[in-house]
Structures are given as structure tokens and as C-alpha cells.
Write a structure and sequence with these properties.
The structure holds two protein chains of two kinds. Chain A is mainly alpha-helical. Chain A contains 14 helices and three strands. The model of chain A is unreliable at 344-357 (pLDDT under 50). Chain B has two domains: 1-85 and 177-262, P-loop containing nucleotide triphosphate hydrolases (Rossmann fold, 3-Layer(aba) Sandwich); 95-175, no CATH class. In chain B, a hairpin with a 2-residue loop joins β10 and β11 (235-240).
Chain lengths: 357, 262
Amino acid sequence: MDKIRNLKKSTKAAFLNYGIVLLFFIVVQILANGGHLTNSFKGQLIPIVSYVIMALALNLVVGISGELSLGHAGFMSVGAFSGVIASMTMAGSVGNGGLRLLIAIVIGALLAGLAGVIIGIPVLRLNGDYLAIVTLAFGEIIKNVMNCLYVGVDGAGLHMSFKDTASLNMAADGKVLINGPMGATGVTKLSTFTGGILLLLVVLIVIQNLVNSRTGRAIMAIRDNRIAAEASGVPITKHKLIAFVTSAAIAGAAGALYALNYSTIAPKKFDFNTSILILVFVVLGGIGNMTGSIIAAALLTVLPELLRKFADYRMLIYAIVLILVMIATNNEKVRVFMRGLGKKGKDAEVKEEAANE
Amino acid sequence: MSENALTPVLETSHLGIDFGGLTAVDEFNIRIAPTEIKGLIGPNGAGKTTIFNLLTKVYRPSRGVILLDGKDTRSMSPVQVNHAGIARTFQNIRLFDKLTVEENVKIGLHAHISYGMFSGIFRLPGYWKEEKRAHEKALELLDIFGMADQADVRADSLPYGAQRRLEIVRALATEPKLLLLDEPAAGMNPSETAELMNNIRKIRDEFQIAVMLIEHDMNLVMGICENIVVVNFGKIIAEGTPKQIQKNEKVIEAYLGSGKES
């Protein structure tokens, strides 16, 4: 018990998050084995995991690094379509579905990370809200590029065109992978819930260990006071770039996981609304609060599905829930009450310690 | 070591900066010996903080040369100047508010903690070894001001005086050769100020570094500084020991007015 109590607050929070994810996994497994899960909920499992990962990735930028990104769906899109292309190209050569999923996720993460580097290097040298503007444009550009991108594969390899499928000039055995505005069609579903949870755990480890290290400390110091961080010998652009690129790569991984859960996936799925939806998860869960991001993303992904019986009033109720949560978490009385709960716990601990001595 | 006493830790010549048509600092020439405590005083708006911002390269000088340990800092960024040996505190306190006291000091240690991002993410042995060393070093530094027991407190919940002390500890953690203190006693009561004086002397003796401080509290300035530079309208108007400065007519005039005009 003493050992647990002596752990740092950040370490406790980190283990709480691993616990929540594992508990979610176990509960779902038990319910699934008992046959208590509806098909619609089963279909929601991988989107839930993907959006939780997206919320964690965005929270790294918004909460830890203090920058605003309005185009994280763009990185998700890059990861999604590069992941699909990778998995379909490997269909013949790599038999194992799990391995193909893993490679697709890694490639999705690498390409989205590369996109993050390309955007980040010029923009993160600047001071101010430029990142929000540029990422907003990036999300739109990616959506529009994907809308007119055609990719196919045949014996000779990958073919690409911005015109139509005919101009891909493929051999007779060629297969269209990305079909312009229709997106990826005929995708083999590779994503599994277990795979998603494993990815989520890896992402949590990466983000939390990064935040609680020399690098993460520097990132948060720059967020809190840029001038003082510089004067203390902390390079600014390098650390902002680390946070942003890590976040973009994680978003790419989430995109690949998400896309490989469907047989078709269209580019318009990853539009501005999706970027804002992820930002809503982060803001509602609490900026900088990873536990909050996990819970908010999971609940708000399930909520529209749960509200299905309200039919036309669904989005109305969804909006009301959002407003109520915001009022509740920003209410001074609610906050004082929550703080009071925390304090009581601490006082009891102090008393206990005194008694032990 | 004997040559150390000859080479000044900081030397400026003809240093100056203009903001548009306004000359904020001009012909600023000083030499700071390796373990000297130098005071920088002058009326409000004289350009004292601007001089600190020039030395730490927050502002780019319009003219003149800054030699740090004999090296020209012309091409250095603020981060490189810090690595080269100048650390500072700020007139309006600039702490990392949401980090703990210990984490604030560890940011000062940033350049002296030698493990990379991947050791941090995968918790390789380098992480554990270096974090343990940083933790011990941070507590040791905090202990100078008796703040080790507040290591886990968030920086923004510290009382005002303690925040000023934490800024000094953080600056000290970067292992500077020259420590610039911008109004370290502002907002402190007389007994806190007296304690601060002792601590500044103690830091100089223990770490063998030079200190330059801007301060309006004349008891502190006269009590602790071996040499004082007085500036007004961006130019040096007097330089000397506290006794010389107290008698200098130009200084008295700058602070109190000449009495000839109304």
C-alpha cells in the first residue's frame, strides 16, 4: 500500500488509464462471450477505439503542447488510405491478417507522420495561432486530393492517376484500390477489437511516457512560458515538432485501424466535421487530461447510436448532452464539490501517515 | 585559474539598440569579472531590462559586441546564449505555472540531462539513471532556498516570494557562468530581502559565478554589490563602488532631479 501511495501523481494517472482500457476490454469480452452484445454495438467497437486514439493524439497537441490543430482528420485520412493501399498490395504476399494489419498501421503512421513533418517545420517556427489555420487548410486539401485520386494495383505494381480509373493503364488482372470520390472499395476487413486495444495500449504508453520524460517536460514548459523556456536552454521548434509529429503519426495509425474495419471508406468521412468532433472529445474530456479524452471519446462515439430510438431528435439530444456536460464541468459549485472529494481523500491519507509514524 | 581572473566573464563594447527612431540603449560598455556581483540601477525606463534582453539575445543588438568568456555571441540564439553560460530571471515572474516546483528546476537542468526521446518513451536504463540524478540535483538546488519540501507543489500555487526564489533556482540549474537577476527583491518584505542578500552571496561563493542584478531596493544594492553601473536614458552615467555611487552627483540628479528646473 505504501508503495502505491508514494507513486507520483502522474504515474498513478498513467496506470489508471491502462486500467480503464483493460477493464473495457475484459467487460466487452465477457459480454461478447455471454452473447449479450448487440450487433450494432459490436460494429461500434473499432470506431470507439479509433476515436479514443484520435482524441489522445489531439490532446498531445492541444493539451500538452498548447497548439491548436483543426485538421487532425486529415492525418487520419492519410493513415487510412495509405493503410488500405498497403494492406491490399500485400494481400498476395503476406497471408497473416494480423501481420498485414500491423504493417498497414505502421505505414499509415509513417506517412501521416511525414505529413506532420512537412506541415510542422515551416509552421511551428512561428509564434501564435498559425498552426490552426494551416492544419485547417491541410484537412481540406487532403480531402480534395483524395476525392480525385485513383490508385490501382496489378502485376507491375501500383498505378496512380488524378483523372479516372481508365487512365490507370493497368494490365487485365489489375484491381482498383482507391476510386476517387468513392474512396477505397472492396477492402478486406482486417481490424479486430483485440488489435485495436493493443494499439490503444501502445499509444497510451508512448504518449504518457513521452509526457513524463525530459522531452515532455520541455514541451509543457514551452506551453506554459515560451520565453522562460528559451532562457532556460530549451529549444522551442524541435520540441513543438516532436509533439506535433508524434500526434500526426498516431492519428495515421488510428486512421488505418478505422479504415480496415470497413469494406468501403470514402474520403469525405475525414472532413472538417470529423476534425471538430475529435476536438470536442478533447475539450469535453478536459484539455491535457488523458483519462477525460478516453472517456469522452468513447461515450460520445456510442451516444448517437444509443439515441437511435429518438430518431429525428437524435442530434438535438446529442447537442443538449454536450451543453449539459460543459455546464457541469465548468460549474464552480460542481468543481468545488469535486475538489472537496479529492481533498478529503488526501486529508485521510495524511492522517493515516501520521498514525503510522 | 589565474587567467580566469583576467578574462572577464562578460564584456560589451558599444552595445546599443534602436526601436524605430528611439535609441533605447547606446554605448553600453561593461566588464564583469568571473565572481563579481554587479548592480545595474537607474530610474524607471532607463533601459535596464532592455540591457538584460540584449545580453540574453531576446533582442538583437543594433550595434556593438557582446563577448561571453571571450566568445562573440553575435550569431547565438537565446537558447545558445543560455548554453554558453548566461541564465536570467524575469521582472514579471515567468515560471512554468502548471508544472511542479521540481519540474521547473528540471527544465533548468534540461541541457544537462543526457537521455533522448526514445529512452524516455521506452524507459531504457538511461531514463532511470538520469531522472534519478536530476531528481537529486533538483532537490539539492531547491535546498539552497529551503524549498526542497515544496518540490511537488504546483509552481503557480507558491507564494510570491517563493516564486521569485524558484526562478533563481531554475536559472542556477542551467549551470551559468553569469546570473542575471531582474529585480529579485521586488515585492519582498525587509526580512525576506535580507535573507535573499545572504543567499545571493552564498550562491556566488558556492558556485563561483558572476551575478549582475537590477534592483530598486538600495539597501540590497549597496549591501551586496561590489560594483554598480548606473544608467539613465539608455546610457551609462556612472560606474563605481557603492560608496562612490552614493556620492556621485549625476546619480543623485538622475534620481532626484537637479533642482534647477521645475
